[in-house]
Amino acid sequence: MSRLHIVHRTTFEYARTVTASYNEVRMRPATLPGQAVLEASLRATPSTYSSEYRDYWGSAVTAFETLGAHEDLEVVADSRVEVIAPVRSASPAGWATLRSPEVRDRMSEYLATTATTEPAPDLMELARAAAGSRDPAEAAPAVATSVREAMEYVPGVTGVHTRAAEAWAARNGVCQDLAHLVAGALRHMDIPTRYVSGYLHPQTDGAQLGVPVTGESHAWIEYWCGEWIGFDPTNLIAVEEHHVLVGRGREYPDVTPIRGVYAGGGKSTQHVEVTITQEA
């Protein structure tokens, strides 16, 4: 078990005065089996009104508006979460179960590839070779490993609108791109797969208690083989007590941490700072 304190601060600075802005924020961790949210707050400055709801995918959303002149905007999400490593089933589902009409119908949203996650033909060749004759529960991490080994992790070369096929063609990208690539490949192989957004303590082994470290938003996948299993394609590790889940969906646009529109302002500059402290 680990207890993590996460502070996610996003600041926007505008070239000219903004007269109004409207935003949605998905930064509050989810409460689910193995993950308990002890405290969670979200503050936007300035803000004139806010409301909370859960979206179609189950993510906690804070919607807020700022109706008044402002030159900058700050959003701070502060949370404490306890995470317990999951216990996996000893008898995962096989290919026959995954390809049954009942499962394909129930999991249809996580089997359909999108323009963002559609894999290139040569990626699918690599994925099928990596899967070989393995059962789904073993094939999924094998595919993720092959994709990761073919990619170079390079921050800044891709953006939130980059499609998996574009990152694959360049053979570089970040966690978002790797999650999209693996999700698209696994879905084509009939393994239901979700895109997951959250946080990862960067020191997964031997973190010093009470010492804040610089983190960042992170992305990984969950694949279904009779139960949902988390895997981190960027770091090639199972999702355990150093991962904090915020939202799930088909792809990044379903779980974007913050999106919005504003009137006036001209060009904006965004700065993001994530601090993670392991407390237990």
Describe the protein's architecture and organization.
This protein has 6 helices and 14 strands. Helix content is 20%, strand content 43%. Strands 1, 2, 3, 4, 8, 13 and 14 form a 7-stranded antiparallel sheet that branches. A 5-stranded antiparallel sheet has the order 11-10-9-7-12, covered by helices on one side. The protein has a two-stranded parallel ribbon with strand order 5-6. Helix 3 packs across helix 4, helix 4 packs across helix 6 and helix 5 packs across helix 6. The longest helix is centred in the middle third of the chain and has 15 residues. By secondary structure, it is of the alpha+beta class. The chain has 2 domains: 105 residues, Immunoglobulin-like (Sandwich); 160 residues, C8orf32 fold (Roll). The radius of gyration is 19 Å and the shape is globular.
Can you give me a brief rundown of this structure?
This protein is an alpha+beta fold and 280 residues long. The protein contains six helices and 14 strands. The chain has two domains: 2-83 and 256-278, Immunoglobulin-like (Sandwich); 95-254, C8orf32 fold (Roll).
